[in-house]
């Protein structure tokens, strides 16, 4: 059975992790290949405007399959081969999601543990059921965040809170996650997907090409100098002014009607 259940509604794609029997683990299955393939498909399809990532069952994702980690005890597995396994394995997920130009919403339905938390941090917007919990728990099983969590989590919650979470491995609840900025909304479980879809629809109502450029600028702004970002912004703005969507948006505004994109 496929790890991801993919649904399409207009410009909105919903990817549901669908292996609740493994707690939607991201290793020891086809999760990596399916996430990478999905991102490649979306990058080729200009009609996609938003991606929602969520999960079936009571858990968002437990991250790595801890039982599967026992195979690393084998002396035949060298540190070099394990390093390469990470490069060719789970590390491909953050690279694929980071390369997406469309906005990505994580709808966190339950515990997001280890790489499961980091998967949520790979998304642009995170909303959660008020019963969800979050833990950067790698240290508790004697490993480090191998999937980019040390880069992702501080950008989501700040360095001090990221250090606290990574050094203790303790879980925080949805209220704490909201307070520290890890998520932007905490809602009752039954309202999670309606809230995510409503937010996605608001995003999808805007012009696709400009939305993708806006996301690129936001991402570049995390590491570029102000001067570099301003130069890139000027270039993107020149492109935006020449799009059919911009012409329609301005015309509709002047004519006091809803734009038709």
Can you characterise this structure?
It comes from Bordetella pseudohinzii. This is Enoyl-CoA hydratase. Belongs to the enoyl-CoA hydratase/isomerase family. This protein is α/β, with parallel strands linked by helices and 261 residues long. The chain has 2 domains: 4-204, 2-enoyl-CoA Hydratase, Chain A, domain 1 (Alpha-Beta Complex); 206-255, Lyase 2-enoyl-coa Hydratase, Chain  A, domain 2. 45% of the residues lie in helices and 15% in strands. It has 11 helices and 9 strands. It has helices spanning 31-44, 79-88, 92-98, 115-121, 149-157, 159-168, 174-179, 192-204, 208-221, 226-241, 244-254, and strands spanning 4-9, 12-17, 50-55, 104-108, 112-113, 125-129, 133-135, 172-173, 185-187. A 6-stranded mixed beta sheet has the order 1-2-3-4-6-9, sandwiched between helices. Strands 5-7-8 form a 3-stranded mixed beta sheet. Strand 2, helix 1 and strand 3 (50-55) form a beta-alpha-beta unit. Helix 4 (115-121) crosses helix 5 (149-157) and helix 5 (149-157) packs across helix 6. The longest helix is centred in the last third of the chain and has 16 residues, at 226-241. The model has no long low-confidence stretch (mean pLDDT 95).
């Amino acid at each position: 059975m496929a790890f991801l259940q993919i649904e399409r509604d207009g410009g909105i794609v919903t990817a549901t992790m669908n292996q609740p029997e493994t707690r939607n683990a991201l290793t020891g299955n086809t999760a990596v290949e399916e996430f990478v393939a999905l991102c490649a498909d979306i990058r080729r399809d200009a009609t996609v405007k938003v991606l929602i990532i969520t999960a079936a069952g009571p858990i968002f994702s437990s991250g790595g399959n801890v039982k599967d980690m026992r195979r690393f005890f084998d002396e035949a597995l060298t540190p070099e081969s394990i390093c390469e396994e990470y490069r060719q394995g789970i590390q491909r997920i953050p690279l694929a999601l980071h390369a997406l130009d469309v906005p990505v919403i994580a709808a966190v339905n339950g515990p997001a543990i280890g790489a499961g938390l980091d998967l949520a941090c790979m998304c642009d917007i995170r909303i959660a059921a008020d019963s969800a919990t979050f833990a950067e728990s790698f240290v508790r099983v004697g490993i480090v965040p191998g999937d980019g969590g040390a880069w992702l989590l501080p950008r989501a919650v700040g360095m001090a809170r990221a250090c606290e979470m990574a050094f203790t491995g303790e879980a925080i609840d949805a209220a704490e996650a909201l307070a520290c900025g890890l998520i932007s909304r905490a809602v009752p479980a039954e309202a999670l997907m309606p809230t995510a879809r409503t937010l996605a629809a608001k995003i999808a109502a805007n012009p696709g090409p400009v939305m993708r450029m806006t996301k690129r600028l936001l991402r570049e702004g995390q590491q570029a100098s102000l001067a570099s970002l301003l130069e890139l912004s000027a270039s993107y703005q020149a492109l935006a002014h020449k799009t059919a969507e911009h012409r329609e948006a301005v015309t509709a505004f002047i004519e006091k009607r809803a734009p038709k994109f």
